[in-house]
Amino acid sequence: MSKSRSRVVAVVFAIFFVASILLSVNFSIENAHHKCTGDNCPICIEIAQAIQFVSNIKTLPTMAVILSIVGVVYFAIEQLIAQIDSTKTLITLKVELLN
Q: Which of 32, 36, 92, 99 makes the best surface tag, with the fewest CB within 10 Å?
């Protein structure tokens, strides 16, 4: 993907993300004092889901940090293995080349 296209995709995702948070909070605030019909009130269920969605967003930064640390460690180990493998050359093994 080109650089400008990936930026556009990132901006669109960010807009959807912020809009979903704002709409969830707005729905919860607007319907906080609704006429509840009892145990299976659909509005209460929707409010609980909206609150749960906003609460789950708190864990996203933690997961991002954990995944980035795992990625860095993986690539560091991969580079270390590549470096170890590259030190085994004919010169380091002292192999005599004959014509």
A: 99
Structure tokens at 35: 């006429």
Q: Name the 3-class secondary structure at 22.
A: helix
Prediction pTM value: 0.53
In the chain, the N- to C-terminal Cα span, in Å, equals 49
At residue 24, what is the residue type?
S
Q: Would you say 63 and 40 are in contact if contact means Cβ atoms under 8 Å apart? A: no
Q: Could you tell me the two tokens for 98? A: 């004959």
What digits encode the pLDDT tens for the residues 43-54?
888 888 888 888
Residue 99's pLDDT band, with cuts at 50, 70 and 90, is low
Chain centre distance of CA 8: 18
Can you tell me the distance from the alpha carbon of 74 to that of 32, in angstroms, rounded to the nearest whole number? 47
Supply φ then ψ for residue 90, to 5 degrees: -65, -35
